[in-house]
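Can't paste images in this forum, so I'm doing it all in text. The chain is below; anyone willing to post the predicted structure tokens underneath?
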Amino acid sequence: MTHGIIVTLAVLGVIGQGVAGLLLLTGLLWLARVRTPLAFVRSAIWGYELWLAFLVSAVATGGSLFFSEVANFVPCELCWFQRISMYPLSITTLLAALCNDHRASRYLLPLPLVGAGLSTYHLLVENGVVKQAQACLLTAPGGCATKWINEFGYVTIPTLALGGFALVFALLLLASVGSPTPEMVDSDDDEPSDAVEHAWQKAAA
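Text version of the structure:
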């Protein structure tokens, strides 16, 4: 049963990575002045970004607790730092969603960003690219380089964490921008539409 849950979490992680990759692609297309894909995504999920961010962070939080409390995987120092970045998101995104407070999402953006950086560093340690610190060896058997799971040939715990952080960041970023309008779809113009510029200026204010 434990292995079945691990495989399920790995499958969810792969799906999340795919969705995060698609969101990244639409963002890159927007920068290339191809507006339609991102406008379609924003229109499709508008009003649900915070709930989706809560869902992702809640699954990630529950998954990490399953690994440590049920599967008895000992979290290393880097795991704890990533938990510090993820666990508050499962509460704050829920509160923001309940209050329908999209402005709050911009203040949560640093958490998944820092968490993604930690996950990337953990992956480098895990694969021997970066030497692990002595503190890692003191916090868990084998230190931070231990691969407690390795599904599909690449899905490890920091891989799951990185995908979760990337997806939460993308959803919070979408939530922080103003509501989508028809004027945002303007792929034929050489310059970004005024609506898009105004929305991003509001998000940065």
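The chain has nine helices and no strands. Residues 2-177 form one domain.
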